[in-house]
Amino acid sequence: MAPQKTPPKSKGRKRPKDLPKKGEEGYLSLTQLRNRRKRKKQKRDKEDAGAGAGAAEGGDGAAAVITSYCGSNTVAVAAASASITTTAAKKKKNKKKKHAKGSNPDQKYIRAPLKCPTVVAAQQHFSSLSLPYPITLGPLTRWRNISKLPCRSVNGGVKFGLFALGTHDVTVRSSQSPAHHVKINEGVLELERLCEECGVKPFQESSGEGELKFVIINVDRAAKKAQMTLVLNLTKDEELPTSLVELTKKLKGWESLSSLFLHYNKVWKHSNAIFNFDADSWNHLHGPQAIVETLVVDGLPYSVNLRFPPNVFRQANGAAFTKIIERVRTLMPEGGDGNVNVVELYGGVGTIGLHVLDMCKSLISSDENLNNVKAFEDAVKELPKKFRRKPSYKQLSAESMVKEGYLDGGAKVDVVIVDPPRKGCDDVVVNAINNSKAKSLIYVSCGFEAFVRDQKRLEDEGKWKLKVAEGFVLFPGADAIETLAVFERS
Ligand SMILES: C[S@@+](CC[C@H](N)C(=O)[O-])C[C@H]1O[C@@H](n2cnc3c(N)ncnc32)[C@H](O)[C@@H]1O
Asked: Which residues bind S-adenosyl-L-methionine (predicted)?
């Protein structure tokens, strides 16, 4: 007699007790139930998309104009709705569950980038001020041209990836990130393979041991090549272990490598700062010193060859930031007739300032990072002759710039441009802007909460009035919005 088969134990969900049992009317097998759940989910997703598109067209008083500058953008965009319905709240809860611990923070809102809390908050904020807040959204994939990825051991292998939400575990599939430029993903795969081949030890947070902490891959979009920086858990005085010597040798053979740098940053505990400020902690091993990037800016009557060595700030979404530069040019005061004196704080390598030179008499750009100076000056050398005398650079923090009087009554300043980090402007900077003779303030913000605080501090004294505000999704999928704002004297 054949042995009686015991039914296999179900690995997945258990059948809910209140459903019809086998033989009863309406009975569905586990597979049928799973398919029904799938169909429901697809329907929900469709509704999500539809609701978004509807809101974008119809509007709700929040002046939600959505501009997409990529025709092939097929994912739904959604304008904010001021009231969250019960269904929306439920969906949000479900999404929250789905994106709980362990998921990729870059992709959390990718199905509806304009529904992320910060975008919704920004739309509500400007709507409450009766100010239009058009939003520009670009491609949802392949937009990221720089990625800073921690190196950790995952299941015994070497992996590079973003920290998953709420953890210090790297997400394993970072080499397949849809946000990354293809050269980042190829670089990650190559690096993972070579690290294993050379026996490189990934950093371990618990013990502070291991050799390799981060890789920073910066893409030269024109050449389709990668500038790679390995952040080591070593001091510069320590000898490079054989594994890393081997790795650097082999990396130089990767056909898509443009340049290779080592950065020595031995810190015991996990720190958010990937780089330290010590100029001696860098070793340039291969290739050019900097990526040279020429943004294609509509209406710009000259070219700017921006320089990006690995130790300066670079916008991660170059294409989307170009749209901001185009709008800054349109919004420059006095019709951009070449008669204004501009002071730029938090200027980086001159990404904004150097693109408005034809519209100003003089430009003083500034930033606290000393590595910007050479990058800025090298870019200026390649400008058309008539523009070369206009710009100058101060390696100073914004706080020092204002303390040294660059915004004072006596200073030549008609327009101030600020593009601070997420925490916004320091009190002393806002006070100086309030008390300066400038007629116009162009504020590019990547930290919405800080922007609201600074806006209040600027307007409360009755000296400035916010005239224009526009949103740009620079990190589609993440909870963020870049705001371009123009203030004029009230
Ligand atoms: C958001 S980035 C913008 C840079 C530049 N506008 C660009 O688009 O590339 C902020 C810049 O502020 C600089 N920074 C941070 N804190 C600063 C401070 N207190 N004073 C001056 N610059 C600062 C950073 O070095 C960085 O270059």
From this structure: 315, 346, 367, 419
Give the pLDDT score at 472: 98
HSE of 297 in the Cβ direction (CA atoms, 13 Å)? 25
- pLDDT of 39-89, one tens digit each? 777 766 654 443 332 222 222 223 335 666 643 332 223 333 322 233 455
User: Which residue, by CA, sits nearest to atom 12 of ligand 1?
Assistant: 346
List the alpha helices (DSSP H) in 158-262. 182-198, 242-251
Residue 174's H or E segment, with its range, is none
Residue 32: other Cβ atoms inside 10 A: 10
Pairing state between β 225-232 and 212-220? antiparallel
Is 346 labelled as part of a ligand binding site? Answer: yes
Rounded Cα distance between 232 and 213, Å, is 6
Ligand 1 and 315: CB distance under 6 A: yes
436, two tokens = 């300066």
What domain count does the chain have?
A: 2
CB 326 near ligand 1, within 6 Å: no
Domain region containing 462: 293-489
Residues 6+ apart with CB under 8 A from 97: none
Domain boundary among 254, 288, 322: 288
Residue at 108: amino acid letter: K
Assembly ipTM = 1.00
Query: Same domain for 346 and 432?
Result: yes
Q: Which residue, of 288, 321, 340, is where some domain finishes?
A: 288
